[in-house]
Fold each of these.
Amino acid sequence: MGFLYRQILRRILFNFDPETVHDAVMKSVSALQGVEPARMILELLVRVKEMPVTVAGIRFRNPVGLAAGFDKNCEAPLILAKLGFGFLEMGTITLRAQNGNPRPRVFRLNEHHGIINRMGFNNVGAYEAARRLSKLGSAGVPLGINIGKNADCSLEDAPKNYLEALKVLYPFGDYFVFNISSPNTLQLRVLHQKERLARLLDPALDFINNQRVKKPLFIKISPELEEGDLSGLVATAAERGLGLIVTNTSVRREHLHARWHSYEGGLSGKPLRDISNEMLKRVSELAAGRVPLIGVGGVFDGPSAAEKFKLGANLVQVYSGLIYEGPFMVKDILRHMEKNQADLKRRARGLGPSLM
Ligand SMILES: Cc1cc2nc3c(=O)[nH]c(=O)nc-3n(C[C@H](O)[C@H](O)[C@H](O)COP(=O)(O)O)c2cc1C
């Protein structure tokens, strides 16, 4: 299936502007979402084995999730879940709707299997997202909701902006993410600093702790962090019982072909893999098992997902891999994991690796 996608569909789709293709795919997919037979056919095609894991108190049917940014406006969670994902992250959603940066703002780096985007949190806003989610019903897998800051909101007002969005969206998510790491919102990454972060988190945690159902909060972090900020951040997460998503996109360009050096925005896909894995390794060492970790950045297949688990991730997420490898990638990753687990069991029983 992946072969067919790469040989035929990808060749066609890659002739068009990336965001135009994405919008068209999301429109078609969300139209199909209401068609029960379409959901059933997809489910049959992408039937995956259950590989349950419990992380941050949530039971996931498998540890491979959809990363934020793919379904920014909660358009198609019911059908995206049928691709085999163990969980989906919606957003980034801001309190008020906003347009984001001028287009074009998404670029495929075909020779690197990467993407640069500078979308700038274009989204329908928390109220419309909540309305959509309330009408959709359950996707059948845990739903994360990723929240960001409005571009016209100052850093001083950021805690209130995030908190208000959290309040509006709280009934509809199984976990929440505060995105403080997009390189496309001016000064957003300053929120990694310990005091700023505490000021952002404490009102949100007060709110969550006063709810009947307490839902986990994750912080999505940048791959470009000073050692001091990083250790403070991991300590904050451990003290306050938060999870971390490692990482968002990168602003580094030196390892790319020169033609891409002047493109502003966040880099994802294969050229992000080593950068985000390095950060995951550092975070995992500092966290020493005290913080739930979601690894994201450059997962394109089974081995690249396995690498993240080896470095300490409890769950992984994908985005760019879906664009380059196609929608059956999730199934391939899970098959690889299943085979590895079977190999491990066989080895433990002294039978040697399977030849499958
Ligand atoms: C076009 C595009 C839009 C994105 N939008 C968001 C977003 O709104 N919020 C967010 O937290 N991450 C966003 N991301 C980052 C992804 O969630 C992920 O962290 C990053 O792409 C690395 O994973 P990947 O290499 O599998 O793509 C976006 C990525 C891409 C390619």
Note: The CA atoms of residues 302 and 335 lie 8 Å apart.
Amino acid sequence: MSYPVSKPERKAPLLFEPITLRGVTARNRIVVSPMCQFSSVDGGPTDWHLVNSGKYAIAGAGVVFTEETAVEARGRKTHECAGLYSNSHIAGYRRITEFVRARGAVPAIQLGHAGRKASCDSPWNLFRPLIESDLARGLAPWTCVSASAVPAPREGSPVPVALSVSEIGAVIGSWREAARRSVDAGFDICEIHGAHGYLMHQFLSPLANRRTDAYGGDLRGRMRFALEVVEAVRTVWPHDRPLFFRVSAMDGPGGMWSLEDTVELSRELVQRGVDVITCSSGGIGGPMSTEVVPRVPGYHVPYCERVRRETGARTCAVGLITEPHHAEQILQSGQADLIALARELLYDPHWPVHAANALGLPGYLDVLPREFSWWLKRREQLRTLTADQ
Ligand SMILES: Cc1cc2nc3c(=O)[nH]c(=O)nc-3n(C[C@H](O)[C@H](O)[C@H](O)COP(=O)(O)O)c2cc1C
């Protein structure tokens, strides 16, 4: 795919223009998308998380998300998943946020709950649902909860327990408490994970929500859990800090959650203080590897554009965005306000400086800290001299 190449006389690329969301300014529009590391111990972060997030802050990203972080212990996908369900977790995350901020990036957290997709083995063991015999390996299975007693459509998935109305209230309270701990831990952006077939998506989609009470039925009923979580989080999440929401803009194969539903949900979210909608897709009808939409570069961008145009929300684009000119074109055309990358950053953590170079940002090496750029600028001079001879 080819993208318009920036002309030399044009002003600095938008990708490297700072963006201000409420009281928080990111130095550029590059977002490290949340990426589960499956390296937590009892929910808490380790040195791995510090080095991993710290690496992206050093490399010049504007916003550094950690990973989906469970608001309850039973809301983790695996025993190794991150959580912020205890005050004892706060200090570990604070170490990360302080380092990320000191390196000029905005520290961000994504709060989630796996619902019926909890109690699984690690990705290296293909997320196999845990069974009693896994106890011998120290991996005890636990009871999953969901909107309804409908198991995830994969072999061996247990039937989850449908949450009662009072239990829903308690889960919403856990979300609020995790948001409060996120403030104490020093995060400046909080994203609520409403996508990928996890608990919130299980409430949104009729594929998993068969309730006949106030939390089910029509769109309004199915959105209620998500909206109440947002309202609860906003009571503790500071007014001057932005709130993001990640939505699966469309369900998995055979899905019943449509883009129209996403637009409607986004309108309600904006009214309740959500600033940025991250558009993703799928996850409810099968594993995340199941294709919902053709995996072409920027496959969620049209969803971002529509949500942005029809709701006034800012949007964050994610999904196979790897080319700097493509990222720039998404921003320039007003389809999204932020560009999130996941796998490309696993491959090339220094993508920001490579993108700055490709887009012709003057002094592009300054994307890096002086511990790197001082030497690299001199290497550049040397190269120019050698080339001139
Ligand atoms: C290792 C890994 C872990 C991920 N963990 C999360 C997560 O915690 N929360 C989330 O919303 N998405 C998660 N994702 C999805 C990514 O954030 C992103 O939406 C997806 O990979 C598409 O972007 P990409 O093409 O740039 O990789 C993960 C992806 C990868 C590769």
Note: The chain has eleven helices and 13 strands.
